[in-house]
Design goal:
single chain; six-stranded antiparallel barrel; globular
């Protein structure tokens, strides 16, 4: 089974808590990202809940290229997201890409949460990781 599908299935089966195949806990959301062809792709993304919204970062594991889902979020104003809870809840969310100081402060939060994010900066060849606020509409 596909790695992302394992995470999606675990998320939905365990009220948004994922401990297998990796220990994410309740730090993920499932984002229904629109694709160019009109379909959607479900992306399990590391998330930080802050000020009533979920924030996701396009780190792509430190790749010098943005993950494909970043372009999908940049093309839309609203998405469905599934958030942890008993049961998992699907929300209609507005999409806003953070910029400037606001983006930098949220990036610092991601790095504080996991040293892995800081390590990504070393391999990204200077790429600035986009961060999106997903707020219930």
């Amino acid at each position: 089974m596909d790695f992302n599908q394992q995470i999606i299935d675990a998320f939905r089966a365990n009220n948004g808590e994922v401990n297998e195949p990796m220990p994410f806990g309740k730090s993920l959301v499932l984002v229904h990202v629109p694709k160019k062809d009109g379909t959607t792709r479900i992306a399990p993304l590391a998330a930080i809940e802050h000020d009533g919204a979920w924030h996701v970062v396009g780190s792509a594991g430190g790749s010098p290229k943005h993950p494909a889902w970043v372009y999908g979020l940049r093309r839309t104003e609203q998405v469905d997201i599934e958030v942890p809870g008993d049961p998992v809840t699907t929300l209609d969310a507005t999409v806003e890409e953070l910029t400037g100081t606001e983006r930098d402060q949220m990036w610092d939060r991601f790095k504080q949460r996991s040293s892995g994010f800081a390590a990504y900066e070393k391999t990204a060849e200077g790429r600035v990781f986009p961060i999106f606020r997903l707020a219930a509409a």
